[in-house]
Amino acid sequence: MSLPPLRASLSCLLLLAAACSNAVAGPSDAVAESPSTSAPGTVVGTPTSPTAPVEDVGQVPTTPTPTDTVTPVETPAPETPVVSTPAPTTGVCSPLGSLSSLTGNLTTWLQTAPIATANSGGFKEPGGTELAAFEGAFRTLLTEGPTPRVVQDLAGMGYGVSTFRNDTGGGWLVVREQGLLSRGGGTFIINLFPARDLWLEAPHADSDEGTLRQTATQLVTLGARALLITGSNRCAVTTASPCSGTTSVCGTKGLRISDAAHYGNNFFTAAHRALRDTYPDAIAASIHGMDAGDGPEAAVVSDGTSAPRPDALSNRLRDSLNTHLTGTKKAFSCNAADDSGKHRTLCGTSNVQGRIDNGASDACFAEAAAATDRFVHLEQSATLRGTGASSKAVMQALADTVPCTLGGSGLGCPAVVAQDCP
Q1: Pick from 11, 16, 338, 365: CA 20 to 30 A from residue 74's CA?
Q2: Cβ contact 230:205 at 8 Å
Q3: Sequence-separated (6 or more) residues with CB below 8 Å from residue 12
Q4: Cα-atom radius of gyration of the chain, to the nearest Å?
Q5: How far is it between the farthest Cα atoms of the chain?
Q6: How confident is the model at residue 415, as a pLDDT?
Q7: What share of the chain in percent tops pLDDT 90?
Q8: CA-to-CA distance for 396 and 384, rounded, in angstroms?
């Protein structure tokens, strides 16, 4: 069977890249080929400490219980890809030939994303000026593609940009730290041909076991716009986060500045702000894990608030999850009056990215007064983060909740003529 035009084009880009330098290091199962040469959104500052509501924002997520068993981790087979008709813009396509190129299975490759381990000291907080510059460069990357200027700007902050040729097709940009001096900044992937107005976030990609593999699979299978992966364990450093909320996950009560979901001065949040500014109507899904224990919860969903709202996006996701889940445990919503008091209040109200999307007055200290339905927070049992039928239920529920409104390849999206860069 002949290669789709997009895959053939990306193969040609590998040859074009032969004259370039500035590679982004890839893991052993990806082949790096020919490296290249080449205000809106307020940065969350270190604020003073007002009083603010607190929420228990963490459960120890990695220990399965006898009733909540993780099946062995393996990379699920991707759904048969479908592709799209609209021609991509010249701004996205024209600079690709100057970038380094990686090939392999994107889902597998992303599971090797560098993450500074707990108590390693591996998270280094960027300064406010650098965060603003990164947000601006990432926004330009989203709107104009990897122009020489934006690639140079990101390189000055320790980030390289490469293309990825996935063995199941599609076109991707990878933005990740390069060089020997990692700051725990994170890895960010952009889908050049998305199917859904959705992006995924894994702020606890290693500590919430299974969410890195899960979100990498969801990115490719659903055809999401992007995936943001934390660059540090939430307990990588001991410095306390000043933001409201509390947890005992790190062994002592309180949040740490290395926790990407609960501190804003990081490249992860800067990328989130750039995505929100570029795609104001897109849905951001923050994917987490919880220790379900003996409770009734397979999942707890929220819109980033705990306010009851019959038409909330989180309620629709809950309903779809319960349609597809197997077993006795079920999904609950923090925004459904009929679920009130039946589940733990893991509602994500102190999640910094959710507060940003819901228009909180201060994303570090203030909970949002109302929801925009542009953010969804998903806490999952270990079973849902495994590789069995329940994990497929999460994939299907997200596909049901966020429709195929763009032109690219994704689960449940109509198959149309393949698009390609000119």
Answers
A1: 11
A2: yes
A3: none
A4: 20
A5: 63
A6: 56
A7: 65
A8: 12
One-letter amino acid identity for 346? L
**Gap between the Cα atoms of 217 and 52, Å rounded:** 37
The residue type at 362: D
Query: Cα separation of 317 and 331, whole Å?
Result: 9
The pair of structure tokens assigned to 171 is: 């076109």
> Using CA atoms, how far apart are residues 340 and 348, in angstroms rounded to an integer?
15
Residue found by looking up tokens 């299978």 in the block: 221
3-class DSSP string for the chain: CCCCHHHHHHHHHHHHHHHCCCCCCCCCCCEEECCCCCCCCCCCCCCCCCCCCCCECCCCCCCCECCECCCCCCCCCCCCCCECCCCCCHHHHCCHHHCEEEEECHHHHHCCCCCECCCCCCCCCCCHHHHHHHHHHHHHHHHHCCCHHHHHHHHCCCEEEEEEEECCCCEEEEEEECCCCCCCCCEEEEECCCCECEEEEECCCCCCCCHHHHHHHHHHHHCCCEEEECCECCCCCCCECCCCCECCCCCCCCCECCCCCCCCCCHHHHHHHHHHHHCCCCEEEEEEECCCCCCCEEEEEECCCCCCCCCCHHHHHHHHHHHHCCCCCEEEECCCHHHCCCCCCCCCCCCHHHHHHCCCCCCCCCCCCCCCCCEEEEEECCCCCCCCHHHHHHHHHHHHHCCECCCCCCCCCCCECCCCCC
More confident residue, 189 or 11: 189
CB 121 within 8 A of CB 237: yes
- Mean pLDDT over 315-322 rounds to 98
Cβ atoms of 216 and 111 within 8 Å: the answer is yes
Q: Output the CA torsion 230→382→62→237 (10° steps).
A: 20
Mean pLDDT of the chain: 82
Per the CB < 8 A criterion, the answer to whether 247 and 253 are in contact is: yes
Count, residues in the chain: 422
Distances (CA, A) of 179 to 112, 185, 334: 16, 12, 43
Question: 375-380 and 283-289 as β-strands: parallel, antiparallel, unpaired?
Answer: parallel
Q: What torsion, rounded to 10 degrees, do the Cα atoms 247, 242, 363, 229 define?
A: -60
What pLDDT is recorded for position 409? 86
Give the model confidence (pLDDT) of 192-219 as tens digits. 999 999 999 999 999 999 999 999 999 9
